[in-house]
Amino acid sequence: MANEKSVMAVIRAARPTFRNNNDKVAFAVHASFVASGYELIATGPPAFSDSALLSSSSTDEVGIDGWNELDEEYAFVYANSENKNKLLVKCLVMNEKLFVDALASHSLHLEINVGDYVGGESGSNYSSQFKNLETLVNTLDAQLLSKLDSTSSTSNVAPVSSETTERSTTEPSTRPSDPLPSRNVYPSVNPIGDSDRFPGLGAGMYPARGDFGGGGMLLGPNDPRWFGGIREPGFPGGQPGVPPGARFDPYGPPGVPGFEPNRFARNPRRPGGGTHPDLEHFGSGSDFI
Fold first, then answer.
1. Which of the 8 DSSP states describes residue 131?
2. Which residue of 5, 114, 122, 198 shows the fewest CB atoms closer than 10 Å?
3. 3-state class of 130 per DSSP?
4. Which residues contact 189 (CB under 8 A, 6 or more apart)?
């Protein structure tokens, strides 16, 4: 963890040249990363290149030459001393503030008010050129460094081997499966025939129903599940022309005039008529709609 003394020690060891107050705060940001164990591998214009974070680029440590070569923008590329993962830190000056962005596996952002951390003196005495340096270092640690360290430690967790994963997915479990508890208790229901839901034989063939109660799932008045059937007058049953084993399907309400079964029967073909009844013209009888 970086602190005020370690950061000032890095600044004195590097002995940078500051052009303005922005340079001072930007270098203090850099010194905080170095004091936290990061190794500088690129700075200045090379750190702005698109290949700076590529794995093929060098991880050798470099000096600070050219670190403030550009105006109002700074860039530093670091390598983590433990796992050599690369980190890009960019600083941009805007409206007397220094915007710091750290980019690794994810990005972090921090805004620093430059005037809060620089002193009025200049020269070779670096401690007099800063003020509230401890506050600046603590802010950098809380907002950037500690978050980057936690992410790095998480990425170092050893992944589960593929062999263990494959074994766990292929070996059958010997633990018996427990039935899921249910809060609802349902009473037992007498089964109803359902053979009418399954496809049967071709037209003209009437197989016998062999399921419980005989027939399908719809109940008629003569169904054996009525314990002998319901014998009510006016309830038609067993009409002529209905094939044996057919499901009961009433034509209409029982006992209501006009709904007799024979009323819906086809009239016999007229004598001498060679045209099919479905192709004849409409008539004027009561059966024509």
1. S
2. 198
3. strand
4. none
